[in-house]
Amino acid sequence: SHHGHNNNSTIATTISSKPTLITTPHLRFLIMDAPRQANLHLYIKECRRNFVTDIVRVCEPTYLGSELTSAGIELHEMAYEDGHSPPDPIIDKWLTLVEERFFGPTADSNNTSNNTNSKKEDKTIAVHCVAGLGRAPVLVAIALMEFEKMDAVEAVMMIRSQRRGAINENQLQYLEGYKCRLKRGGGGCGGCCIM
Question: Which residues are known catalytic residues?
Answer without folding.
Answer: 82, 129
